[in-house]
Amino acid sequence: MQSKFLIQGMSCSACSSHIEKALRNNQFINSCVVSLMTNSMLVEYDSQKITVEDIAAIVEESGYKAILADTNKVSSQTAIIKNKENTLQRVVVSFIFMILIMYVAMGSMINLPLPSFLVGVNNAVSFAFVQFLLALPVVYINRIYFISGFKKLFKLSPNMDSLIAVGSSASLIYGIVAIFIISFNLGQGNLQVVSQYASNLYFESAVMILTLVTLGKYFEAKSKKKTTQSITKLINLVPKQATVIRNGEEKRISIDNLVVEDVCIVFSGENIPCDGEIIEGSSYVDQSMITGESLPVQKNIGDQVVGGTVNKNGYIKVIVTKVGKDTTLSKIIELVENANATKAPIAKLADKIAGIFVPTVIAIALVSLVVWLIIGQTFEFALNMAISVLVISCPCALGLATPVAIMVGTGKGAENGILIKSSQALELACKTDVVVLDKTGTITLGKPQVTDVYSLNCNQEYLQIAFSIEKLSQHPIAFAITEYGKNLGLTALPVTDFKLHEGLGVSGTINHKTYYIGNYEFAKQTFAEINIKDTVDEYSFQAKTPLIVVTKDAFLGLICVADPIRNTSKVAISQLKKLKLDVVMLSGDNQRVAQAIAKQVGITNVVADVLPNGKDDVIIDLQNKGKRVMFVGDGMNDAPSLARADVGVAIGAGTDIAIDSADVVLIKNDLQDIVTLIKLSKKTILNVKENLFWAFFYNCLGIPLASGMFYWLFMLKLNPMIASLAMSLSSICVVANALRLKFFKPDNNQGEDMNQIIVSINGMSCSHCSAKVEESLNKVDGVTACVNLKKKIAVVTYVKEVEDSVIIDVIQNAGYEVTKIERK
Q1: What is the distance between the alpha carbons of residues 496 and 33, in angstroms, rounded to a whole number?
Q2: SS3 42
Q3: I want to staple 105 with a disulfide (CB 3.0 to 4.6 A). Which of 13, 189, 204, 552 is the partner?
Q4: Which residues pair with 817 in a beta bridge?
Q5: Residues 6+ apart with CB under 8 A from 106
Q6: What is the reported pLDDT for 72?
Q7: Which is nearest to 544 in space by CA: 589, 593, 504, 478?
Q8: What are phi and psi of 265, to 5 degrees?
């Protein structure tokens, strides 16, 4: 069983490493991943042997608090926002008192006016005691560092808070001791000693450390909030209320009170409250935040709609089919959050280092203190060095280097309709050697459609006959013909004596005349004089299924049905090849059909006649050859292959995004999103490597400088106040670098990779005409065309520059007229 928890009390990667270590020591916990970025934890465990309460107790024993996310209404994003607001309050109060203590401590040095009781050696006790009083509010409001830091230190699991607590406590304790020394020597008349200690109190250093660290935490929380904007936008899509019809009346109710089969009214401009089906009205729906598609999609009665999308124009009634956690939007948010809670393989190095980093820093600080005392420096000098080491060595930057980039990367993927379910998948995507594509539902639409109609005189009467008879059949090919007839506006004629001829076709009687629809063998048996074998073979070699309409004494026409290739498949495969990837097509169809499809999209490596377990064997074989394999399937019958591949990508999932076996889900059903995934992966992993480099470089440079290793050569030493500022800036720089990923834009549809031309055409009267135009255009090198007969247009996509005159000539040679060309 897997459960998600929210974790309170973490401050750096040492915290997350310690929690993971504590949980993994339990034999009933299979895996545990703690995310510093989202303050969350995913635990997979044996629910028969251990409970969530037991898991929470282990975390609490480690010095932190775990809350089961399912029972907590505060999401990780909300927790980040609340943490940011709380930290801002601490920053404001800390800065007020920091300014006051700096004025008192430094005022006399720059001739600022001070009260008389704070001036002079004789007032040294009041001068020191006022600084102590001004430091107390800052210490109190930032007490979390001391509570957390010393608690973890005593449990032998020190973290960043431990470094801050020890460093600032050392400054405070030194200052308190100094007050007693000043008081004693003032009574003894030793004014030189009084002056020496009064000018080296370190209260201002403690205050400055706490204030600047808290300021860094605020900017870090603010940056984290930016990294989660993609998820926050998704959360904000869901309206707070919905208009429903209950007992014949319209009512406004909370979205939490919606139930399945409620009927919602959605007015123009409103967000659709939940997943459902339109039962009245039509509209254009903006699905951009869910699918990444920029253009609104027309929705009519019977169409499915997704909660959170926007009804752009029109009044619709929607019957609720899914609510709460079952909705598409909720699952998207859950997938993205869970992806952020996982760790990429590249993060393992940072985690290992973080686990031993803090104890090592404390040891270095102690060694620095002792060495400087041994070689004759003052205690104040040695303490300064030790505190600087503790403060500058915060492992925050190291801990944030990977998760912050992963969070932005997965969020950016979600914005573009790519749901990445784990950070491991995001990392491995760019390391892919071979992309294996399922044919049906991936390269093709997975839904048979009428592609060609053929008769001797373009007479559509036989289409009405075929429509009327096939409407009574339940075969997928019959559904394609029925849908085609509906689009043409045909009306069904009364049919009697309908018969199904197994393996051949169907027949039926209309107006006392019997018609036969089926394959060539069936037609030949019925009408022996038919002679269109060459035409049938030509269509068959194009991966189309020809159905012939005949009577006992006449050939009426031919209808071809095929699973059409997706508009973008050819371009996407071309782009994958440009990325130097091997592309393999797997198909359960026969070799002839598979080769025909492969030829159209530019694939040379084809494996046909394979069952689902056969696909799995192909992937295993490639992996045994040392290849890293990405398998792209429709997410339903390809589950074994999706699970077997290094990266399993489900396409054609639509709103069914919870495919357990896939690592990535492409909502838009577009193969070009594979290219976007790979490019996003490359950008993200490069960003992670940059972050890790700067985090390591910072600590490698900062610790020697703070410990005084450059003091003998260059007289360089680091003040604890400057060290605390540098520590804060290191984390901010790492997060800011990761935020550059927010500027990532898919370039699949831009530049020289892909362009589109919309061509308006006159003269097309039937699907035979549109098929002829489409076939002619697709013969042009680098061109993929899709002709819409209803709109009388051709959408021409090209990867190589093509002149308008070439398009015009091809269409005119096919016998039609171009009226307009528009480039996008």
Answers
A1: 65
A2: strand
A3: 204
A4: 762
A5: 112, 204
A6: 39
A7: 593
A8: -100, 125
**What integer is the mean pLDDT of 243-269?**
89
For the chain, the straight-line distance linking the first and the last C-alpha, in angstroms and rounded, comes to 50
89-107 tens-digit pLDDT: 888 999 999 899 888 887 7
Highest mean pLDDT among 84-93, 210-219, 515-524: 515-524
Within 10 angstroms of residue 660's Cβ, the number of other Cβ atoms is 10
- Cα(422)–Cα(315) distance, integer angstroms: 39
Phi, psi angles (nearest 5°) of residue 315: -105, 125
Which pLDDT score, from 0 to 100, does residue 778 have?
Answer: 78
Lowest mean pLDDT among 372-386, 583-597, 706-720: 706-720
Distance (Å, whole) CA 205 – CA 164:
12
pLDDT at 750: 41
This prediction has a pTM of: 0.64
In sequence order, the 6+-apart residues with CB closer than 8 A to the CB of 409 are 420, 426, 680, 681, 683, 684, 687, 741
The phi, psi pair for 254, rounded to 5°, reads -65, 145
Burial 5-36 (b: 16+ CB within 10 A, else e): bbbebbbbbbbbbbbbebbeebeebeebbbbb
pLDDT band at 188 (very low <50, low <70, confident <90, very high): confident
Instruction: Write out the two tokens for 276.
Output: 């459902």
- Closest listed residue to residue 68, CA positions, set 1, 23, 6: 6
Return the sign of the alpha-carbon dihedral for residues 624, 630, 636, 639: positive
Q: How far apart are CA 99 and CA 472, in angstroms?
A: 85
* Calpha distance 239→70 (Å, rounded): 21
**438 is known as an active-site residue:** yes
Q: What is the pLDDT of residues 637-664, one digit of tens each?
A: 677 788 788 898 888 654 354 356 678 8
Q: How far is CA 596 from the centre of its chain?
A: 35
- Residue 793's CB: how many other CB atoms inside 10 A? 18
715: tokens are: 């007289």
Q: How far apart, in whole angstroms, are the C-alpha atoms of residue 614 and residue 610? A: 5
Between the CA of residue 290 and those of 150, 176, 327, what are the distances in Å?
46, 59, 12
Phi, psi of 297 (to 5 degrees): -110, 135
Strands (E), 638-686: 647-651, 664-666
Task: Look at residue 9 and give its three-state secondary structure.
Answer: coil
C-beta of residue 572 within 8 angstroms of C-beta of residue 585: no
Q: Which residues contact 661 (CB under 8 A, 6 or more apart)?
A: 635, 638, 639, 640, 642, 643, 648, 650
How distant is the alpha carbon of residue 74 from its chain centre? 21
Query: Which two tokens mark 486?
Result: 């509906």
Question: pLDDT tens-digit profile of 303-344?
Answer: 888 888 888 877 899 999 988 877 877 777 776 666 555 555
Q: How far does CA 108 lie from the centroid of its chain?
A: 56
| Catalytic position from the list 275, 286, 438, 616 | 438
Residue for token digits 């690592």? 663
Nearest in space to 721 (alpha carbons), one of 361, 392, 366, 368: 392
- By CB atoms closer than 10 A (0-12, 13-18, 19+), residue 282 is middle
Show Cβ contacts of residue 823 under 8 Å, excluding neighbours closer than 6 positions: 755, 756, 757, 758
| Model confidence pLDDT, tens digit, residues 15-26 | 777 788 888 888
Tell me which residue of 39, 46, 48 sits closest to 16, measured CA to CA.
39
H or E, element range at 770: helix 767-778
